[in-house]
Amino acid sequence: MKTAIVTDSTAYIPKDIREKWNIHMIPLQVIFGTEVLQEEIDITASEFYEAVRTKELPKTSQPPIGQMVELLEKLSKDYDAVISIHLSSGISGTYQGAITAGTMVDGIKVFAFDSEISCMVQGLYAIEAAMMALQGKTPEVILERLEELKKTARAYFMVDDLSHLQRGGRLSGAQAFIGSLLQVKPLLHFEDKVIVPFEKIRTRKKALKRISDLLGEDAASGKAYRAVIIHANREKEANEWKDELETLYPNVEFSIGYFGAVIGTHLGEGSMGMGWMKK
């Protein structure tokens, strides 16, 4: 059985890596007034952060069902099955859209996978699935592996303030932070598929140290991990943090990812996070 791997643009997998592993990408949309842009196609992350300095924050939208159907119909000519890996169903309807689109296309079996997360942690699932698909593994075997990885996946991120998340309705339990937004760097994580507060921390430096310590708790097992540092237009800071972390945790393989237009709309520039899972 020949299996295709699809993910959405919020995995923020660089184009060269998507091409290397034959990963198909379906874009989410950012909407500035009447202008609809497909993220990672019509607008890059750096273009987005430049745009929002002079424009109102855009709205974001999941891919149209028709676009998903079109991709599946195209894939059905060469593949028997598709594993479609998407950002958390608790913050977007993209995963549900993939399930619906799968029922509308004949000749190909669609397996949707809810990453329950986003950004390059979602991307790690897609890359693992793509490597297995190229080895000829069945969809069932690949999905079993993804579920196994999910048990070890963690991600924490810091935002400079919660206004974007509150306005977009993407943060659950935001009331816990009301009244102290100016004094804290909120540390957030995904829990039960939604973004919730994890801890209030006073400074950016302490917030990043806390994330590093959380990784350290898992890395202390001595097992091999993959970790990705994710930044919202703070590449220099991300690289400096990576250098520091590589010294601390030699059993962890680090890479750099980013918050693109859709996720950046909800988190805001300057956000920083890290996600990891066992190899």
Write structural notes for this entry.
The protein is an alpha/beta fold. 38% of the residues lie in helices and 27% in strands. It is built from ten helices and 13 strands. The protein has helices spanning 15-21, 45-51, 65-75, 94-102, 119-134, 139-150, 163-168, 204-219, 235-248, 261-267; strands spanning 3-8, 23-26, 29-32, 35-38, 59-61, 81-86, 109-114, 154-158, 185-191, 194-201, 225-231, 252-258, 272-278. It has a six-stranded mixed beta sheet. The protein has a four-stranded parallel beta sheet with strand order 2-1-6-7, sandwiched between helices. Helix 5 packs antiparallel against helix 6. The radius of gyration is 18 Å and the shape is globular. The two termini are 25 Å apart. The mean pLDDT is 93.
Number of helical stretches of at least 4 residues: 10
Estimate the global geometry from the Cα principal axes.
globular
Assign a percent range to the helix content. 25-40%
Q: Give me the secondary-structure category.
A: alpha/beta
Name the beta content range.
Answer: 25-35%
Residue runs with pLDDT of under 50 for 5 or more positions: none
Order of helices and strands: EHEEEHEHEHEHHEHEEHEHEHE
| Radius of gyration, whole Å | 18 Å
Query: Averaging pLDDT over every residue, what do you get?
Result: 93
Query: Biggest sheet, open or closed, and with what strands and sense?
Result: 6 strands, mixed
How far apart, in Å, are the first and last alpha carbons? 25 Å
The strand order across the widest sheet is 10-9-8-13-11-12
Number of strand segments: 13
